[in-house]
From TrEMBL, chains A, D:
It comes from the Archaea. Tetramer of two alpha and two beta chains. Its EC number is 4.2.1.20. The gene is trpA. This is Tryptophan synthase alpha chain.
From TrEMBL, chains B, C:
CDD domains: Trp-synth_B. Pfam families: PALP (PF00291). This is Tryptophan synthase beta chain. Keywords: Amino-acid biosynthesis, Aromatic amino acid biosynthesis, Lyase, Pyridoxal phosphate, Tryptophan biosynthesis. GO terms for cellular component: cytoplasm. The beta subunit is responsible for the synthesis of L-tryptophan from indole and L-serine. The gene is trpB1_1. Gene3D superfamilies: 3.40.50.1100. Pathway: Amino-acid biosynthesis; L-tryptophan biosynthesis; L-tryptophan from chorismate: step 5/5. The modification N6-(pyridoxal phosphate)lysine is found at K86.
């Protein structure tokens, strides 16, 4: 659990982790958008591999997934996309377990992980895979040196929390509020409590679900987060398309910069965490 | 704690936010349902009897017995309050939620039968209730939508995908992920994460508990076969459970839809035969047999009956099929419609279109079903009248009454 | 031979052509029903149980009991196959016809509930079946028309008069006068010439037989009052019969319609309250209480519920009212609609609009009904959804759900 | 049971008995039509007092009843109409029991019969009043010297037949076939059998239900009937109104003549019955 590319991404202060649905609306655009986000300051990129039943997503990302699937996105196309990216920051694959489980000829998650490692993916977030069912994927990740990021929810406590934190690597995805993904206009009070519960663990804590503004980013990092994850606010920009305000790529870069600045500002207003 | 798997199937593939609620539910299931804490089971049984109308009869079907030259018995779940077996489960879960101190109930529905059952149970118990239903199903099952509203439930249309049961389940899970602290999700079949498949089966097992006693009383012995239609599989598991230890053949009749062929390109399987043609995968919280493409994307299923129109199936049923204990079979839309009309005319029972599938299999394969056959009449067809008018008019269905006067709908 | 009169009411006022058939029926009633010849009664009871779903529960209504601060029990005839008490009678008569060697059944229907019950019974017994139904009622109760057709029955529209139950009965009598030799007329309530009122009551008396035992079992005593809606009066007499010797108050709740005033000029009584406001006369074979003008012409009755929309009432009920044993009361259309929504929301039971009248009386007069009240839930409301949408939209009904999404019908 | 005006109407050979619904379409027309029928040879006139639930009538007469009720016909108007008629042949009132039962202040049929006698009505036919329920009306008729005609159906036999024939006066109405009133194009085979069953009784036998043509009339009288009753075929003419073929009254008279001739022809082709 040390020395992965993901770990390094948290080394220089609070990380900004944008999410996009791969293939929304097509493969070439995704490459362009990801690069724009990196230019804007992304430290890690979460790239969604669309699944037809995205039970953890709100309508913004659901719609992105529909666009992507209609554009012909498949696991193989996804891997090719990542292979082509070459962006210099770690890529985390966010998808649902069935796609991982079904991939390849052999049974289980191993073929998927093997291929992911090969194309340069650094870790996974699998929203429908709680710690209880994660052992096969955890093993395959270990074998190929990939991180397996778990989500902790506001409802995760005590024994459960321990079970998850025993298995997590890369960072822990702190779900800022109950519910599904989706941009909000406020910061949930649950966030600070959730972060507090994680004090005793040394793994980086990245907060997601609902962050859409510079101020959110700042407040959350001030509250103790090591990173912020932003998805729907960016997917909204993709969905809007080019406007008078700039192309999608331009606006993504601008938004990324703004959020990253928020995170940095938050980082300065609190005692820097000791990093190992 | 109860086992979360059935062989290789089952499990708990859900977002972390739901896991604490699911653990709480496992605990409540253990205490109230399995150990009858606070007399939960007695309360449940009393309500099933007085509010639900249990026991339902096991009826000797005279005309069908003569037609097939064997003794055909009907387990009359269509007589349950609300018109389908669904109340057994909806009432059980709503009552459990009440014992757990939850104030709000959410549920998905396909045919609307689980939604109406849940809405009725919630009205009966004084719980708030919201039902998610695919927009397409809302249009196919308008009377049921209205019944839910009458019982004071909100009905939330789900517009993603093809707007059927699969999408409704996904959307209900999303609501639950938001509301999990005060809300119980009353899932409508033996699907979803553990402990749902086991718990729903236990609530539905009353079907075979009664049927087994009744058939012994009427014939002095056990049936040679039991037939039940399978969507998610709750009436199937309910009708099979107490017979699994016996020497009785168990047939799960799936919706063959318009064809068993699959349109990979379009992402559509024009059937709902996951046991017969599906492959292993993970959906809606469980590992089970699914209709999916080679990438693992879930297919849009199809059936003339909304209640069977689902790409997955209960993990226990998948396991029993692998073990050879349950035989998966299927019949197509036309066969189901024909049987709908046949049962209506020969026995004076208008079955749900879902149920009609079991009778279509009886018609096709009766010779191999032995001397004593039980068919589970999972529901009545009042909710399907509009669909039957349309679908019958589109086809040349043997034995159907003249539909002309009903062109333009009811 | 059984008595043809109840006090001054009853008798056999029918065309001579029908009298031989009626004598034959009297004889069959005596032998099969009263003397259980050939085990008729046992056969009937077994079919009521296995095909019909008897016994129906007597349910303690928790929400209503709390609301009215007394113990309210519901006799759940809505759970009977077909959705109303009507099957008790339809199955009894169709079976009797079969024992008599008749091959063809005719019947009238108002709400369509007696028609569907008869069609179901005939399909079950393999008898030919034709149903007469007023054209207006056909339009008010389309799903029931379709259900009859599905069960293989012909539905003959009756276009005379206002096209409701009264006209349908007249027309069925005309058919019978033609076909009397091989046809039995399954009359749908405790009306018509002797022996119908007595025989139909005997078939329906199973309601109070069960309810009396059940209420004693549940409360240790007899109810203070029993409430049932009264159209022709079959569910009323069924629910009252076994209590007539007890010290229980019996309330026959009639349809007050839109008003108890009568429009002599137009020949219209905008209600169906023949017990409350009618006068003695002869209609459809019996002397009874009727809605009629001062010349003796029968009025067109009205009720929001087709099944109560009748200008006459059973002669035995008229007699029991004269004797003071039964109290006739009535509630109006609005009250019935309100109660329809109230029961749906509070108890999770969607009642027939007919049945809703009994609950409206409960709401109005509960204070005077004693500690233990039984309400006969004569049927379920699935058949009424369309009417309820229309009628609720026209009015300002307290507690009704928002109907907007259903404008334009189901 | 002797010497009534109705008895006399059968004295001179087979009687022709037309039926019309009083007040169809109005009172003045009915008077005109009845007179036309008498000119055409009617020996007795059956005049229907419309009741809202005419369960023994087919659609022709049902419709006539609707027209009449809509035209305002009432029992009192009916009595006035009959009082005005002055046609020289007996009038039989055909109606349903409720109108008889309800009439007047006192209970029972007596007030109706009293008034009927006063306006010159000679007898009653009440299709929904079988012998079993007829005693009160029979008594009132006896009191005022009116005949009470009963219908015997093809299904009426044995004990029942005896019970009816014990109570009948004027003539017995032999229902030619099962069913309701209404013109037919054939003569029922049941007619001869029915007539045969009545041989032992000496009261005149008039056959009705379905007779519409001269030939029917002839055949039925040949078969032993003492009279024929024709309703729907005449009501059809009223319903049609005036045509190129003549006014309603003209066509009624013509039809009556034709039917009467048929009856007479039938009478000649059989041995004349002995009349007391
Ligand atoms: C009448 C009826 N039968 C069967 C089904 C299928 O569900 P399951 O397989 O869970 O019993 C449904 C579902 O709505 C139904 O309404
Ligand atoms: C549900 C229901 N209740 C009551 C009635 C009224 O009939 P009765 O008074 O004969 O019970 C009807 C008639 O159709 C009905 O359908």
């Amino acid at each position: 659990m040390s020395g992965s590319r993901i770990d390094e991404a948290f080394a220089d202060g609070p990380a900004f982790i944008p999410y996009l649905a791969a293939g929304d609306p097509n493969i070439e655009s995704t490459k362009e958008y990801v690069r724009a986000l990196v230019r804007g300051g992304a430290d890690i990129v979460e790239l969604g591999l669309p699944f037809s039943e995205p039970i953890a997503e709100g309508s913004t990302i659901q719609n992105a997934i529909v666009r992507s699937l209609e554009g012909g996105m498949t696991p193989d196309a996804y891997f090719d996309l990542v292979e082509d990216l070459d962006i210099g920051v770690p890529v985390v694959c966010m998808t649902y377990y069935n796609l991982i489980y079904r991939y390849g000829e052999e049974e289980g998650p191993e073929p998927f992980v093997r291929r992911a490692a090969k194309v340069g993916i650094d870790g996974f977030v699998v929203p429908d895979l709680p710690a209880e069912e994660a052992d096969p994927l955890r093993e395959a990740c270990d074998e190929y040196g990939l991180d397996l990021i778990f989500i902790v929810a506001p409802t995760t406590r005590g024994e459960r929390l321990r079970r998850i934190m025993d298995r997590v690597s890369g960072y822990v995805y702190v779900q800022a509020r109950l519910g599904t993904t989706g941009a909000r206009t406020d910061v949930s009070d649950q966030t600070d409590t959730s972060l507090g519960r994680l004090d005793e663990w040394d793994v980086p804590k990245a907060v997601g679900f609902g962050i859409s503004e510079r101020e959110h980013a700042e407040r959350i990092v001030t509250g103790g987060a090591d990173g912020i994850i932003v998805g729907s606010a960016l997917v909204d920009i993709v969905a809007e398309g080019d406007t008078d305000d700039g192309t999608v790529a331009e606006r993504l870069e601008r938004k990324a910069r703004e959020l990253k600045e928020g995170a940095l500002a938050g980082g300065e207003s609190r005692p820097q965490p000791e990093r190992p | 704690m109860s086992q979360s798997k059935f062989g290789r199937y089952g499990g708990q593939y859900v977002p972390e936010a739901l896991m604490p609620a699911i653990e709480e539910l496992e605990d409540a299931y253990q205490r109230y349902v399995l150990e009858n804490e606070e007399g939960f089971v007695d309360d449940f049984r009393a309500r099933l009897r007085d509010f639900g109308g249990r026991p339902t009869p096991l009826q000797h079907a005279e005309a069908l017995s003569a037609r097939y030259d064997r003794e055909v018995y009907l387990k009359r779940e269509d007589l349950l309050h609300g018109g389908a077996h669904k109340l057994n489960n909806a009432l059980g879960q709503a009552l459990l939620a009440k014992y757990m101190g939850k104030e709000r109930i959410i549920a998905e529905t396909g045919a609307g039968q689980h939604g109406t059952a849940t809405a009725m149970a919630c009205a009966h118990l004084g719980l708030d209730c919201e039902i998610y239903m695919g927009e397409r199903d809302i249009n196919r099952q308008r009377p049921n939508v209205f019944r839910m509203r009458l019982n004071g439930a909100e009905v939330n249309p789900v517009t993603t995908g093809r707007g059927t049961l699969k999408e409704a389940i996904s959307e209900t899970m999303r609501d639950w992920a938001t509301s999990v602290e005060d809300t119980h999700y009353v899932i409508g079949s033996v699907v979803g994460p553990h402990p749902f498949p086991r718990m729903v089966r236990d609530f539905q097992a009353v079907i075979s508990e009664e049927a087994r006693d009744q058939v012994i009383e009427k014939t002095g012995g056990l049936p040679d076969s039991v037939l039940a239609c399978a969507g998610g599989g709750s009436n199937t598991m309910g009708a099979f459970h107490e017979f699994t230890g016996d020497d009785t053949d168990l047939y799960a009749v799936e919706a063959g839809g318009s064809s068993l062929e699959v349109d990979e390109e379009g992402g559509v399987a024009p059937n709902s035969a996951s046991l017969s043609t599906g492959s292993e995968g993970v959906l809606h919280g469980a590992r089970t047999k699914l209709l999916q493409d080679s990438d693992g994307q879930i297919m849009e299923s199809h059936s003339v009956s909304s209640g069977l129109d689902y790409a997955g199936v209960g993990p226990e049923l998948a396991h029993l099929v692998d073990e050879g204990r349950v035989t998966p079979v299927n019949v197509d839309d036309d066969g189901a419609l024909e049987s709908f009309h046949r049962l209506s005319q020969l026995e004076g029972i208008i079955p749900a279109l879902e149920t009609a599938h079991a009778f279509a299999f009886l018609e096709e394969e009766y010779e191999d079903l032995g001397e004593i056959v039980i068919v589970n009449v999972s529901g009545r067809g009042d909710k399907d009248l509009e669909s039957v008018i349309e679908e019958t008019a589109e086809r040349d269905i043997e034995g159907a009454p003249d539909m002309d006067v009903f062109q333009g709908g009811l």
